[in-house]
Write a structure and sequence with these properties.
By secondary structure, this protein is of the alpha+beta class. It is 19% helix and 42% strand. It is built from four helices and eleven strands; from the N terminus they run ααββββββαβββββα. The strands form two sheets. Strands 1, 2, 3, 4, 5, 6, 10 and 11 form an eight-stranded mixed sheet that branches. Strands 7-8-9 form a three-stranded antiparallel sheet. A hairpin with a 3-residue loop joins strand 7 and strand 8. The longest helix is centred in the first third of the chain and has 12 residues. The two termini are 28 Å apart.
């Protein structure tokens, strides 16, 4: 998040006054991000995610890959009946078939043993039209422009995992990003 334009972080924070992720905002924001040229981003590296069809949010054990972050102590309940505390949530940028998409809400889960991918959040918050999980084989994500993305999974201890390339706004794009933000191209219209 070091190179995310501060004005973009401010817009995101302002759109979430109660620290509650707003679906409509993030759907529109993801569409806007996906139109930016790939030269706007650099690769942070890949991360392994447990594909959890029951999860209603993403989880990352490290805060480093977040492109924005909102401090907000939250108790996250798990299907097992246990819970853990998240010190905050935010968004990550992932590369799928050469396009960059925002994924939300991603809770910072420093005590969790693994990162979690939430297929339902991909639909609800990132605006993808379809998420199909073929257990022990692949996950298929269809975006808002009907572009299909297929991710292979590997299975360990009866759980599916996939690798995602995490991206960030690169330093050289900051001035052009500020111009884009000032012309409201990344500023979603929020309907309440």
């Amino acid at each position: 998040s070091d190179f995310t334009p501060p004005s973009l972080c401010q817009i995101i924070a302002t759109a979430h006054p109660n620290n509650v992720p707003r679906k409509a905002f993030f759907r529109q924001h993801t569409k806007a991000i996906s139109t930016l040229p790939s030269s706007t981003f650099s690769s942070y590296g890949s991360a392994t995610f447990h594909v959890d069809s029951g999860a209603n949010c993403w989880g990352m054990t490290s805060r480093d890959p977040f492109y924005f972050y909102i401090k907000n102590d939250t108790s996250i309940s798990q299907v097992s009946g246990t819970s853990f505390n998240s010190p905050g949530w935010g968004g990550i940028l992932v590369k799928l078939n050469g396009r960059i998409y925002g994924m939300y809400p991603v809770h910072h889960c420093p005590g969790n043993p693994r990162n979690t991918l939430s297929p339902s959040s991909v639909k609800e918050f990132s605006g993808f039209s379809k998420t199909i999980i073929s257990m022990n084989d692949s996950i298929h994500l269809t975006d808002f422009n009907d572009i299909e993305n297929s991710l292979q999974v590997s299975t360990h201890n009866d759980m599916d995992y996939t690798e995602l390339e995490i991206m960030y706004f690169n330093h050289s794009s900051s001035s052009s990003m500020n111009a884009t933000i000032s012309t409201n191209q990344l500023l979603p219209t929020i309907t309440t």
